[in-house]
Write a structure and sequence with these properties.
Largest sheet: none
Number of strands: 0
Order of helices and strands: HHHHH
Distance between the termini: 26 Å
Radius of gyration: 16 Å
Number of domains: 1
Shape: globular
Helix content: 55-70%
Oligomer: single chain
Number of helices: 5
Length: 118
Amino acid sequence: MEKRENQNQNQERKKLSLEEFQQEIQKIKEAEEKGELKTGHFLGEEEFRVGDLTEEDRQIYEELNNGALTKEKFNEYWKTISPGQTTRVYYAAYIANKFTIELEKKGLAMKKLKNSRT
């Protein structure tokens, strides 16, 4: 029952406005600057300006947090970022790392499930 409630919470998660999304990323950036969090993507990066994040960045964040992000969607998103968009490049690297971790967790869970059936 608890698992079902968590799934419903994820599905019902409020969609963030662009401004709310930027505020969330600002909090992550500040936590990293204080040493409370280690992502390696925002620390000491004076060129990282939260205000440069776009609606596309918000959407990919929502998809990641809702478990809807796929490799194909991420690749399409990556193609929208030009090398000169420093903030977006750092942010995309952050998302890529979080996405990779999620894929790894799912892979390990599937492996455990498969092993428990044999």
